[in-house]
Amino acid sequence: MANNRIFWGRLGLFSEQRGQASLELLLIVGFLFITLIPLVMYMYNVLSEDVWQVDVQQSQSLVNKLAESAEKVAAGGDNATTELFLYFPTNVRNFTIFDRAIIISTEVPRLGIIDQVAVSNVPVGLSPNNPTCWAGVGGMQRVHLIYSGENDRVYVYRCTEECPLDLCSTN
Hints:
The chain is of the alpha+beta class. Helix content is about 45%, strand content about 30%.
C-alpha cells in the first residue's frame, strides 16, 4: 500500500504541474493577443489612409496619358485613331474635358474632392454622340481617341454597349 500512495501522490503532483503550466501558457497567449490587437488596428488604419494617395496618383497618370495620346493622335492627321485601356480609380466622381484641359475629380476621405488636371497642346473633347456615357466611370475602360480634322479636335470615346463606333465592336 505504501507503494500505491507514492504512485498516486506522484500522479497528483504531475497533474498539479500540468495545470500550472497550462494556466501560465494561457496567460502568455492572452497577453500576446492583448498586445497584438492594437498593433493590428494601427496597421489597418495606416494602410487604409495611404490608399487614397495611390488613387490620386493613378488619376494624375491617367490625365497625363490622355493628354499625351491626344497630341500623338492629332499629329497623325485626319481620322487618326488610337485605342487605350485605362484604369479609372473607383472613387472618381467626375471626368470632364474643357477644350485643352482634361480633369478628373477624385473623392478622398477626410479631404474632400481633389482635381487632377492635364493640359493638352491640342483641343480635346468628349464623344459628341454620348457625352454622358462617362457618368460613374470606374475600373478598366477601353477608350478610343479619334482626331477630327473637320473640327480640329481629338474626341475621346468610351467603348460601351451604346458606342456608335465600329472600332469598339471589333476585338
